[in-house]
């Protein structure tokens, strides 16, 4: 595939079939846990949009979806630790069973901030699902109910995840090595 850039520094970490299988397993687990309840999915843009789109098709539940955008990185490979809400939710989460859908848990600062913010809005319950987690990078301990894959500390792209807005369309999760 030609993306108009040098892709020779991309190495596949998790391929399409692994992503599909694990997403299905997470969907089955979440469906069992929320059986008979209405589940409100809060997707964190932009990175988690591909994961959400696949995960929700494995949730045969009464679901609704809302989106929130935050920025914790300013086009850099390293976290700044600063979290800013760029787009807030459209609807109230008060009294609802909310599942935060994240792409990746790195230092934990973003999810920690989001959970505190959403808790203050009085949901009935609040849990998190993240496709990826880098345990070795954690600064803030955050409780995450569902984790897709634990991965090494490398910077990854694809399946929704970007580097400077590129690579989101890769079907795999790839390690990105930048020649700086
Ligand atoms: P944290 O606050 O946990 O350090 O970072 C969470 C956010 O940082 C994620 O939602 C994601 O946007 C970004 N991030 C962290 N690690 C990576 C990575 O390896 N690749 C990409 N593309 N984004 C990352």
Polypeptide structure, described:
The chain is of the alpha/beta class and 180 residues long. It has a single domain (12-163), classed as 3-Layer(aba) Sandwich (Rossmann fold). The protein has 3 helices and 9 strands; from the N terminus they run βαβαβββαββββ. Helix 3 links the parallel strand 5 (97-105) and strand 6. Helix 1 (16-33) packs across helix 2. Bound molecules: guanosine-5'-monophosphate. Residues 47, 72-73, 79, 102-110, 155-157, 161-163 line the site of guanosine-5'-monophosphate. Guanosine-5'-monophosphate binds at residues 47, 72-73, 79, 102-110, 155-157, 161-163.
Small-molecule binders here are:
guanosine-5'-monophosphate
Name the overall outline.
globular
CATH topology: Rossmann fold
Report the sheet with the most strands, covering strand number, pairing sense and barrel closure. Answer: 6 strands, mixed
Order of helices and strands: EHEHEEEHEEEE
CATH class: Alpha Beta
Specify Rg, calculated over alpha carbons: 16 Å
Termini gap: 24 Å
What's the average pLDDT? 92
Strand order of the largest sheet: 4-3-2-5-6-7
Hey, roughly how much beta strand do the residues contain? 25-35%
CATH architecture: 3-Layer(aba) Sandwich
What count of helical segments does DSSP give? Answer: 3
Number of strands: 9
């Amino acid at each position: 595939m030609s993306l108009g850039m040098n892709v020779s520094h991309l190495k596949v970490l998790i391929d399409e079939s692994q992503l599909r299988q694990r997403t299905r397993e997470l969907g089955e687990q979440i469906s069992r846990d929320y059986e008979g309840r209405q589940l409100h999915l809060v997707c964190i843009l932009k990175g988690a949009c591909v994961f959400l789109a696949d995960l929700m098709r494995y949730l045969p539940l009464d679901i609704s979806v809302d989106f929130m955008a935050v920025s914790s990185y300013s086009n850099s490979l390293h976290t700044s630790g600063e979290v800013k809400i760029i787009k807030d939710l459209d609807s109230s989460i008060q009294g609802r069973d909310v599942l935060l859908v994240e792409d990746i848990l790195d230092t934990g600062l973003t999810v920690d901030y989001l959970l505190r913010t959403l808790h203050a809005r009085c949901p009935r319950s609040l849990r998190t699902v993240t496709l990826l987690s880098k345990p070795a990078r954690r600064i803030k301990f955050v409780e995450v109910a569902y984790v897709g894959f634990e991965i090494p500390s490398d910077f990854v792209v694809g399946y929704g995840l970007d580097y400077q807005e590129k690579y989101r369309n890769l079907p795999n999760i790839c390690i990105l090595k930048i020649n700086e």
